[in-house]
Amino acid sequence: MMWPGGDFPYGDRRIRPQFWEKAAFHVSFEKRIDRVVDWFTHPLTPTNLVFMYFEEPDLHGHAYGIESQQIRDQIVRLDRALAYLLKKLSGRNLDSVINIFLLSDHGMVSITEDRIIDLDKHLDKNLYVAASTSPVLQIFPKAGAENDVWEGLKAAQNASLMTFEVYKREDIPKRWRYAGSTRAPPILAVANEGYAFQDVRETIASLDKRFHIPRESIRACSYLTLRLQVERGTL
Question: What is the pTM of this model?
Fold first, then answer.
């Protein structure tokens, strides 16, 4: 149910879920829950595992920051949605046979405009491709530009007064259990707590437009800090 990536075929057999709906955030939480409960009680192909995604409080957290009244309002909304889910399951006599796991998307920490690190001032963005988003950038230099990209990142690191860390794949901290993955990039840049890279400006502009937030009203915008989650054992 609106689970990110749930509409893509999986594996060599190109398997898809029996039931799935693409993200349509205008659909109320209650209507989503109604449909999921119907999947569990389908007369021909009842499901036995459902992943259901709610875009809150992530969406308002990114837009207004983690201490805002807006995000508090969304948490209340989610509490009510959970109560509604429990009521619906009980009404179908499913509450004793279904296990519910509540998962967090990611942690958040507030940033402000003056804490955005602009790599473009020291590094030609045409020399590399950056996957993922702040505060963790997976950097893939183009052929022949490996040294230029590394030197540019180190220059940006020094200019920013060491507000981010940069690692070659082989130097990524072992405790992160990441360097050995086939998905690990040649270079990994990780902003320190409370900082982000320039890509975050596009997200801020998009959220300002969506929520009609005046651009001159700079407020906290929130993003995952990978290092904190790893070191606190919550990732």
Answer: 0.79
